Amino acid sequence: MVSYEEQDKQYYEHILRNLKDRGVELKDIAEIVIFLEKDYVAGLNEEVSIYAINKVLHKREAQNAIMTGIELDVLAEKGLLSAPMQRIMQTDESTYGIDENMAITLASLYGSVSVTNYGYVDKLKHGILGKLNDKSTGKINVFLDDLVGAIAAAACGWLAHNEREVDKLLNK
């Protein structure tokens, strides 16, 4: 039987591969974190932002949401969903909302700071989020754009709730 720690590592590595395969690097998410937190965390840099992102990516509830969302996007892209789900995913139907609900749930793991940051960045489509939301590419990123925004927002929440650790990381 695989230990919880080994499973966590496998899920984390699977998520990193899936993000990369979908065109998302941790530095892209870090850029969003810095954009959101630059006025609140003096000296925030890419390294500390990625540290916070990795904290989020090792949380099991976050892992499950990310893996589920990416899997649905990939299946839809391959045309493997049944009707009407295939049409909903292909058109990114505006009233579907499950993608945002999953992202809000992920963000809420780190409190109200994360939830408000998620709503803000989802509306702006800052950085990589604009690229992921571009329908002209032929890619289906119904869940991914929201989940990437939620990962960034959750990392912001982690930063807010771990001020002492962040100070140590920034002042080492």
From TrEMBL:
Residues 50-161 form the YutG/PgpA domain. It comes from the Bacteria. Transmembrane segments: none annotated. InterPro entries: PgpA-like_sf (IPR036681), Put_PGPase (IPR026038), YutG/PgpA (IPR007686). One of its GO terms (biological process) is lipid metabolic process. GO terms for molecular function: phosphatidylglycerophosphatase activity. This is YutG/PgpA domain-containing protein.
